Amino acid sequence: MLFFTQCFGAVLDLIHLRFQHYQAKRVFSSAGQLVCVVNPTLNSKHGSSRCASSRDSTPPATQHHCQEVVYDAKLTSCSCPLYSCKWEGHLEVVISHLTQTHTINILQGAEIVFLATDMNLPAPVDWIIAHSCLGHHFLLVLRKQEKYQGSPQFFATMMLIGTPAQADNFNYKLELNRNRRRLTWESTPRSVLDCVDSGITDGDCLVLNASVAQLFSDNGNLAIGIAITTNTLCSLETKI
Amino acid sequence: MLFFTQCFGAVLDLIHLRFQHYQAKRVFSSAGQLVCVVNPTLNSKHGSSRCASSRDSTPPATQHHCQEVVYDAKLTSCSCPLYSCKWEGHLEVVISHLTQTHTINILQGAEIVFLATDMNLPAPVDWIIAHSCLGHHFLLVLRKQEKYQGSPQFFATMMLIGTPAQADNFNYKLELNRNRRRLTWESTPRSVLDCVDSGITDGDCLVLNASVAQLFSDNGNLAIGIAITTNTLCSLETKI
Questions:
Q1: Do B214 and A207 make contact, defined as CB atoms within 8 angstroms?
Q2: What DSSP line would sit under B72-113, residue for residue?
Q3: What ipTM was predicted for this assembly?
């Protein structure tokens, strides 16, 4: 009897997921685009003090010309980008940590749709996906945070599992689209060596207040179109 | 002596304006685009209760299909979109009120650059321009407002001097562009019969928190590229 109840539960979950896929596809009508349903990663504690401490010589994030600061991925220290996780390790093992400890799947492709579910959960909460394209791993982090009580904000930022100089070789675009409204943010990814918090403080991310998030969300789900491209300017400079 | 001092002051002002024009042109490189330097309109009092009261039958702003609600511009009541102004009058005389009382110039062209100066002034403060294109008058209102003390936000919205059904025939785009970051908001203008406040509450405008505004501003000035187009979908429906 228990077995049949569990089977029925699994079928219901599948129908729910299928419905969420359908909703996301309805928002982003371009055929063949990968839709990724992302459930929230609940946080219990503020982790803003977890930034890597071994990077005092890192150029500031607002300085965006192509640089050639040399980092050794086996030696450079890095922290988990999730708000609640205290993990610290070397750059080359961040992706293993995310996939093994947080069971994050790695998607393939430079253009995907990120469908964050349960937007109405109380802050702080993170949504995260990893995707692999253009020879690198990228992370999209969406964070709901309350700077002022009763006024949650959403911050979406793209991070490269790599150094700031490598991040400078790419551009990314995040797009919200609903009811004849479109909000687009285009920028250069930040390195995972930077804190997510520093991007939020600098305003260097897509920021949505509660009303804007509500306007673009559909039944508590927020679909964000993502596209990553190579920054031709930096690639040319590197070749020269 | 006083005359020469005043002349010198005027020359300095001209040099300052010329420098602001140069800065805006540097940001928006498309040749021949009109740059409009917009000084703030200081406000002394909250005017959120000034919404037109004779419009209970107006469809909500989130309902965006082409409608044919009939308004008589000589009878429909409307309030000044400026935060500090208590004026109320009929729809057909709003533009006269703005040009005569607030000395707002009417610019020509569907694509212009709005250069808001003195972004660091304390809230509340409005910047406004009127422009004429596609057979109508439009207003761009940029409002700096503090919902939470010490946390000012900027809200930019486009309004049509016309009815909600007329506003539905157009789309507009606002674009901020600086240091390899671009933020774009595309939407349908709201009717000037709606309150600016209602657009802010609904999240139906470009919202910038202080950090994002700082990221895109240059020496206290914020350049916003504006483009207005006809909504072909509604035009087609009207023709059919």
A1: no
A2: -TTT-EEE-SSTT---EEEGGGHHHHHHHHS-PPEEE-SEEE
A3: 0.77
Is residue B2 assigned to a domain? no
How many domains, chain A? 1
In B, minimum Cα distance to A204 occurs at B212
Is residue A174, in this structure, part of any structural domain at all?
yes
* Interchain CB distance below 8 Å, B215 and A202: yes
CA of B149 vs chain A CAs: smallest distance (Å): 9
- In a domain, residue A161? The reply is yes
- The range of the structural domain enclosing residue A101 comes to 35-43+66-239
Q: Which two tokens stand for residue A198?
A: 């520093």
Contact by Cβ (8 Å): B179, A62: yes
Nearest to B201 among A179, A182, A211 (CB): A211
Q: What is the pTM of this model?
A: 0.77
pLDDT digits (tens, 9 = 90+) for A107-124: 888 889 999 999 999 999
Q: What is the CATH number of the domain that holds B223?
A: 2.60.210.10
Q: Please write the tens of the pLDDT for every residue from A168-219.
A: 999 999 999 999 999 999 999 999 998 888 888 888 999 999 999 999 999 9
Give residue A164's pLDDT: 92
The chain A residue lying nearest B201, using CA atoms, is A211
Please, are residues A115 and A221 in contact by the beta-carbon 8 Å criterion?
A: yes
Sort out which chain B residues have CB atoms less than 8 A from A201's CB and list them: 211
**How confident is the model over B212-233, as pLDDT tens digits?**
999 999 999 999 999 999 987 6
